[in-house]
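help with this record:
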Amino acid sequence: MYLTWLDNNSWLIEISGQRILVDPWLVGELSFGLDWLFKASLKQERLISEQIDLILLSQGLPDHAHLPTLKQLDHTIPVVASPNATKVVQDLGYTCVTCLGHGETFTFNNQLEIRALPGSPIGPTLIENSYLLKELATDFTLYYEPHGYHSPQLKQFAPVDVLITPTVDLTLPLVGAIIRGTNSALEVAKWLQPQFILPTAAKADATYEGLMVNFLKAVGTAEDLRTSFQKNNLTTQVLEPKPGDRLELNLQNRVLTR
């Protein structure tokens, strides 16, 4: 298994011989329509020339279903998406879109099972997707949730080999954590006993503007999480990739323990 962090929530996952592009923001600016409140731009655009076998979208918000990026990608690439993100890619004219609701699964090329589970709440009524990916030949599993909201349903799939989820909190005054990492990452690691955990929803090669940026505060560090894992007798390795680095994860086979 190879993982490449492309900054923020964007990942390239290579699993079971498939190249999966997750929540890509690769070109252009990121805006939610109120630039005075928040706007972001990449220091380095990351056009991917290699073949992409699948696009996986967890949410329909612009930082997950990023319109400028999706407009540039080949519209014949298959897409698996939450119901909210499905509307985005269908409106753009993507030709092979699979919508997954919570609890539904999709088998891709007879090699990879993708299971949608409850993820991040968006507003009072909408809950977006998290995903559990399973390599059918080896039973290796990877779990992705970009905001740190983990459904207790996950416990039935333990152990899970790799987690991609926030590992620090991102907070706003009076609101609290809008990205949940510190306690949330420890809790889900206790449930799933992963071999590796990698942070997402972090920023590296991007610049941020707007009123909100002045009040956002990151709480916690990777070292804090390692200490928490040690105190709780977790052997999970906390990795800290840099944008563009392609990491090879050498996983130990735990099929017999599942």
The chain has a mean pLDDT of 89.
